[in-house]
Amino acid sequence: MLSRLYNLLSIVSIATLLAGGGFSAFLFGTGRLNAARLERIGAVVRGELDEFPQSQPATQPAEIDEPPVGRDQSLEQIDAVRRQRRLQSHLLERAARDIEAQRRLLDQTLQYLVNEREQLAAQRADWAVEQQKVTGEVVNEAAQKHLELFAGLAPQQAKEHLVWLWSTNKAEALALVMQLEVATTKRILAQMKAPEEQKILSELLEQLRTYEASGAATMSRKTAGDAAP
User: Fold this and answer.
1) Along the chain (229 residues), what's the average pLDDT of each consecutive run of 10 residues?
2) Which residue of 1, 45, 104, 166 has the lowest C-beta tally within 10 Å?
3) Would residue 133 count as lying in a domain?
């Protein structure tokens, strides 16, 4: 039994030795094992070296970028800021349009007021002209009526009216006498016999001579101007 076990161990040892020798020969033959490496292996076996030096990797592994913390939150904040800016821009544009519309409305209102004022001024001017025309017509009509009534009075009554009119409005009295016919004027003036009436007659005749003289001078100047080349 022991001899059989011994024989078996011998066979295993011989096989191991042959295998190890063959493997060593293979390593030496391929250059993967040399004297220096064999010496280092022996030093490790004897405990002179703790372990083979670890070979450093040719390149360091690339660092894996971790996703930024709160990225979704940052994107939401950016979107919120953009929305806020767009809203503010829209509000500013709307305010600018409202201001421009108000400015145009104000300009239109001012122009309307200016036009209305001009139209009112023109209407007032036309009304004034028309009023003067109407007044003149009324005055002329009243003066003509007054003249007709005065000329139809008896000489004594006409004289009394002329004396009263001279004391109140000498210009109207003078105009009334100047529009009468010469014969009618003589008959009325002949009734002024009292001292006070004589004084009025003297003043009236003086005014008539002054008016006729000024009228003649004016007519003379006009004639001379028309005759000049």
Assistant:
1) 49 46 56 64 60 48 47 80 91 92 92 91 86 72 83 91 91 88 90 92 89 61 45
2) 1
3) no
In a domain, 53, yes or no: no
Domain span at 163: 153-220
**DSSP class per residue in the chain:** -HHHHHHHHHHHHHHHHHHHHHHHHHHHHHTS--HHHHHHHHHHHHTSSSSPPPPPPSSPPPPPPPPPTTHHHHHHHHHHHHHHHHHHHHHHHHHHHHHHHHHHHHHHHHHHHHHHHHHHHHHHHHHHHHHHHHHHHHHHHHHHHHHHHHHHS-HHHHHHHHHHHHHH-HHHHHHHHHHS-HHHHHHHHTT--SHHHHHHHHHHHHHHHHHHHHHHHHHHHHHHHHH--
